[in-house]
Amino acid sequence: MLKDVPVDEITHVIGLATAPAFLLGAVAGLLSLLVLRLTRIADLVRTLVADRDRAAGEWRDGALTEALRRVWHTRWGITLCAHSGIVTGWMVILTFVDALFGFHNSPAIAVLFIAALALFTSALVFLLLEIRLSVADITHIQRALRDRLPETR
């Protein structure tokens, strides 16, 4: 049953919903970054597969394996980030349901906030792992180029 809620209480509930809104903004930004990185990695994989006849087999296979590892990490980052957004949305919904219907969902709201932050933080960890693989690839390429080129002194 919908209870009669004073305007100042609704204003307070809207104020409580602003913190999750900032979290949703962070989720949207991270999700955009992860999707962009996944697109770039997919382009790299397509290029490696298309150029398989021209590239050296061992190097190409290693680069393809590393790119696919990067895809795996990025995919998990996207999944965790999207779940964080979904949980945050449900948390905001429960906050309003609690205020309008008096269901006293405070423990559930707190658990959802903790879960949303844990999911978001886990997505950041997967982003960090993917970045480490990307930097390792660049370092590997730099070493290979340095070993091929004669030193100029």
Q: Which keywords apply here?
A:
mainly alpha, 153 residues, 4 helices, 86% helix
Question: How would you sum up this structure, described in words?
Answer:
The protein has 153 residues and is an all-alpha fold. The chain has helices spanning 7-16, 18-50, 57-101, 106-148. The protein is built from four helices and no strands. Helix 1 (7-16) runs antiparallel to helix 3, helix 2 (18-50) packs antiparallel against helix 3 and helix 3 runs antiparallel to helix 4. The protein is rod-shaped.
Quick rundown:
The protein is mostly helical and about 150 residues long. It contains four helices and no strands. The model has no long low-confidence stretch (mean pLDDT about 85).
| Oligomer status | single chain
CA(first)-CA(last) distance: 83 Å
Report the uncertain regions.
none
Helix content: over 70%
Main beta sheet: none
> What is the number of beta strands?
0
Give the C-alpha Rg: 23 Å
Spell out the helices and strands N to C. Answer: HHHH
Beta-strand share of residues? under 5%
Number of helices: 4
* Broad structural category: mainly alpha
- What is the 3D form? rod-shaped
Mean pLDDT: 86
SSE topology sketch:
Layout: H1 7-16, H2 18-50, H3 57-101, H4 106-148
